[in-house]
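Because showing beats explaining, we think one record worth quoting, sequence and backbone structure tokens together, and here it is:
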Amino acid sequence: MDYRILLYYCYAPISDLEAYRDEHHLFCVENNIRGRIIVSSEGLNGTVSGLKEDCDNYMAYVTSDPRFADTEFKVDIHHEHAFAKIHVRAKEEIVHSGLRHLNPRTKTGKHLEPKEFKALKDEEDVVILDVRSNYEHELGHFKNAIRLDIDNFRDFPEKVKELAHLKNKRVLTYCTGGIKCEKASAFLLEQGFTDVYQLHGGIIKYGMEAGGEDFEGKCYVFDNRLAVDVNTVNPKVISKCFVCGTASDRMVNCANPECNVHVPICPSCGWELEGACSETCKTHPKKRAYTGTGYYQKNTNGYNPYKGLFQKPNAEKIKSALYGKTPS
């Protein structure tokens, strides 16, 4: 089957938040789109999967709304759905940063297309800044990049204090798909950094359009693939097995659901510990059966994609507007 995975975001004001969330959710259900989508008063952020035709319809649906007309989708080919369910949630921010006062539509770092980023990254007085979390950049990062010790993006503003000595440098920020850089680069400018850039489309687009040169390791992604190859020019494994320390970029979830840590574990240790990250987790009574992948599909028993939707007052109006019919 011909499936696609879409990664996208768009900063744009949404005033009818709950109504739009419901409408968006319903469109995904009716078009067999699965994934995780955040709807906020500041815009959209999503990673979804579906058959090519369904994904084409979804992209057309999003961009047909004038608010999201300039949304850019990173499109990858896959052999199946990358998600088991659809979740469309209303939240305060489309990426949790605590920087609600910053609007990337009015002030953010200069966007660099992948080839521009590639040409600039090795010049003098340039520093490359990874704005992702530890578990992401430990799996893969650009050669010579500054990597902050943060567990969540919301920790980024505090860590910027450690970069004060770089305020007169040209700072090139990057992340997975570009969304974190919008706020990160805007915050750097607010803090007095004078020349700030961001990799447009992030690591994913850089791999697609510039061959991923000098991105070492794999890129962590937020779907059931967990990690993807980026570099086709000079690839290099930089991560180490969490258990034995040998080179490994095989990202897994611990088989103990109460641990569920995302770490690299080599095939040998994976089988030895039955998918667990330690002997303690191996003997845990709730440990999941290991099949060699390190990915565990969430239980979908009783899952109803329409749950909570048609009980809402605006549900019939939404479906009627979208499809000219009311829910059965």
